[in-house]
Amino acid sequence: MRQFYGTSLATPFMLGTAQYPSPAILADAFRQSAASVATVSVRRESAGERAGTAFWSMIRDLDVHVLPNTAGCHSASEAVTTAKMARELFETDWIKLEVIGHTDSLQPDPFGLVDAARQLVADGFKVFPYTTEDVVLADRLLDAGCEVLMPWGAPIGTGLGLINPYGLRSLRAQFPDVPMVIDAGLGVPSQAAQAMEMGFDAVLLNTAVAKAGDPVMMAVAFARAIEAGQAAVRADPMTPRDMAAPSTPLIGKAFLT
Amino acid sequence: MKITVNGDPVEIEAGSVTAVLAKLGYGDTKVATAVNGVFVPASQRDDTALVAGDALEIVAPRQGG
Asked: At what angle do helices A215-234 and A189-197 cross, to 10 degrees?
């Protein structure tokens, strides 16, 4: 498995921590799925609230890598400030960089994203940019110093799966050596298997698990699908063809009229 | 002086970020801070004075996707 800024992950499964019915279900989803990375955020804290301390203590107990995000940031400067606050709180230089350009689609702002990535890399961050399948944007992000890319499968929270397989295949083919994570838009495990079969290195999702009727079972289902897709790539799949080819030998077939 | 804390107007005695956090009752809570959109590391809170009109943001770890 490709490394992420020099780190080998035990499993290529990155899981969000938001929207679960309870902290216990969240923790169970992580434990039973063996997800190896937890995404987290920073938000306003009131005096005496101490919600952050309780949450952070629970995440630390999971013993996973922590990937803070800049979710909800709409400008490079906002994302950079958020990243710096996250680095201090979570004691990691990993940052899932989100610079949102459109309110309805939550589509990344490519210009702000590259700008923020450049600033953060210069400041020592290991940037995981939430990006689209755009090959030119990917190239700019790599130029800015990103060593990992996180293209979307579909807009955040939609559960639509890989809506542009051609674009994602092109991106994978264009940068065969860059570690890439399919981030966002997945709804069911088969889509995660598909992402892995396409040669992506990991999958990041949140809503599909947290909003399932049984989040723990769904987390396990995703883990198995990711593992299946990963094994399929290693097994070197056959080449598809348009015309049928019999699998049962024709030789020796009884001649019957 | 009047400042803004996490978007709300607050009347508070002038002082450093550290002093204001203490007066607001944050105690030893694990938080990160920014003043007027610029990150203020914990190590610089003692030396960063807040003045009237400043916007102080105080954040902590939360769930995220």
From this structure: 20
Q: Which two three-digit tokens encode residue A197?
A: 């079969």
Cross-chain CB nearest to A18 (options B41, B61, B63): B63
This model of the complex carries an ipTM of: 0.96
How does pLDDT run across A174-192, given as a tens digit for each residue? 999 999 999 999 999 999 9
**Contact at CB, B64 and A47, closer than 8 angstroms:** no
Burial A113-127, CB ≥16 within 10 A → b, else e: bbbbbbbbbeeebbb
Query: What beta strand segments (E) does A17-72 contain?
Result: 37-44, 65-68
- Are A168 and A133 in contact, with CB atoms under 8 Å apart? yes
* Average confidence score pLDDT of chain A: 97
pLDDT at A125 over 90: yes
Exposure string of A157-167, with b = 16+ CB inside 10 Å and e = fewer, is: bbbebbeeeee
In contact, A183 and A153? CB cutoff 8 Å: yes
Q: Is A84 a catalytic residue?
A: no
- B26 touching A (Cβ < 8 Å): yes
The shortest CB-CB distance from B60 to any of A16, A42, A59 is to A42
For the stretch A200-238, pLDDT in tens is 999 999 999 999 999 999 999 999 999 999 999 999 999
State the catalytic residue, choosing from A96, A126, A211, A253.
Answer: A96
Identify the pLDDT of residue A129: 98
Cα torsion for A53, A58, A64, A67, to the nearest 10°? -40
Of A43, A46, A84, the CB nearest to B62: A43
* Touching A: B residues 35-64, CB under 8 Å: 37-39, 41-42, 57-64
